[in-house]
Amino acid sequence: MANFSLVNNTSASASQARLAVTNNSLNQTIQRLSSGLRINRSGDDAAGLAVANSFRSDVAVLTQGIRNANDGISTLQIVDGGLNTISNLLDRASTLASQSASGTFSGNRTTLNNELTAVLSEIDRQAQNIGLGTGVAGTDPEARFVKIIDTYIGGGADASATGNVVSVDLSSSVADSTGLGINAVDISTEAGAQTAIGTIRAAVTTLGDIQGVVGAGQNNLTQAIDLASTQITNYQAAESAIRDADIAAEASNLARLNTLQQAGVAALAQANTSGQAVLSLLR
After folding, report:
1. Is 140 a residue whose pLDDT tops 60?
2. Superfamily of domain 52-243
3. Pick from 142, 268, 120: which is nearest to 203 by CA?
4. Is the pTM of this model over 0.85?
5. Which one of 19, 27, 97, 127 counts the least CB within 10 Å of its CB?
6. pLDDT at residue 190 is higher than 70
7. In the predicted model, is pLDDT for residue 7 greater than 70?
8. Torsion angles phi and psi, residue 89, rounded to 5
9. How far apart are CA 47 and CA 223, in angstroms?
10. Rg (CA), the chain
11. Which residues does residue 168 pair with via DSSP β-bridges, in sequence order?
12. N- to C-terminal Cα distance for the chain?
């Protein structure tokens, strides 16, 4: 049985409640469309927000890790440049030794030996400048060059895991004349020059081993950058799937909610006039 009342307009109250729900949904949809995000506040999806924030944090770590790796590559390139210079100096030392070792040489071997001494001094200077000289501890992290270069890249589930770090160990690498074993060579005599040729050849091999460590470190850091870049793309895609709004779906929802809002306003207007119908019973 219908209940006619002048005190409570239940139809209007119900219409207002439904209209409020529609307006809230409409405001949320407009916010998503304007921001491009499905989650604009914690209440939109608290669990999803936590996961999305975790992915975003991973991206931040890996982005900095790529910068760290590029810094490491730059450091190794400087070291490699010094080693290449030392390699060229060894070529000159070999040339001088070969010249002095020849029995047909009619010049002054002392002059050749003096130049070789100057070459060895330059090798020492170059090695010292790149942190690979004798007596260079290379353990101070504030120093320009350290002998153990640990570069944090990130990307692992455990931030403290060693797999997040690319390490280049040059702690046993000494590229000066002492480390290369040529500090005592003397080409002032033919016999001494002949001995020096073999010694310098061995130094070239030793230097090549050091260059191999540096080159492997450069390659490892480059590969780490490639992996980190791939991980960043994947993490961003995962975050986007959670955080970003589906614009097509939200646009469709906007049209639906606009229609519901107009219908709700019309229904509320109709409900507000129902009291006038009750008054007609009193006439």
Report:
1. no
2. f41 fragment of flagellin, N-terminal domain (1.20.1330.10)
3. 120
4. no
5. 27
6. yes
7. no
8. -65, -35
9. 34
10. 39
11. 149
12. 22
